[in-house]
Amino acid sequence: MTTAQRPLRADARRNLERILASARTLFAERGAQAQMEDIAAHAGVGIGTLYRRFPTKESLMTALVRERFQEFTVIAEDVERSCEPSDALATVMRRHAEAVEDDAAFQLAMMNLASFHWEGIEQDKAALGAILRRIIKRGQKAGTVRRDLRFEDYGAMMCSTTATMYFLEDKSGWRRQQEILLAGLRPA
Prior knowledge:
Order of helices and strands: HHHHHHHHH
Oligomer: single chain
Distance between the termini: 54 Å
Largest sheet: none
Radius of gyration: 18 Å
Helix content: over 70%
Strand content: under 5%
Number of strands: 0
C-alpha cells in the first residue's frame, strides 16, 4: 500500500479538511492572488504542513478541482437515478452549477484549462463522463435534447457558466445565462 492509498490519521484528515476549506475561502475572497502562507495561517496549520501535502498552489487547486469532480459524479448518479430522461440534463447542469456557485478556485481552474494540471483527476473525469454521456443519450432518445449535442459540449457549457459566475457582478446572473443555454439544447 502506498502513502497515497493509506488512510489518513484523524489529525492529518482534519488538517487536510481545514486546508481545503481555507483554500476555497481565500480563493473566493482573493482569486488567484491568494497566497499559500495565508492559506496555511487561515487553516491554523504550519506552512510546512501545507507544503508537505501541496508543494505548489497548482497542486492545491488540483485537489480542490478533484474534490468537485467527485462531487459532480455523485450528483450525476443521483440525477440519473431519480430524474426522467426529459429533465435529467437540465437538472444535472443546474445542480453542478449550484455546487460551484461560490467556489472561485474551481471557477479559476475552469477558465485556465490550458494550463491546469489534470494529473490525478483523469479517473474522476472519466467516471463523470460515463454518466453524463448516458444522461445526454437518454434525453436525445426522449426527444428533449437536440441530436447533435455531444458530451464534449457539456464541459464547454459548464466552463461558460463558471466564467459567468466569476466575472458578473450580479452573482445570480449565471442562472439566466444557463437557462439560455438550456433552451438552446432543446430540439428545434
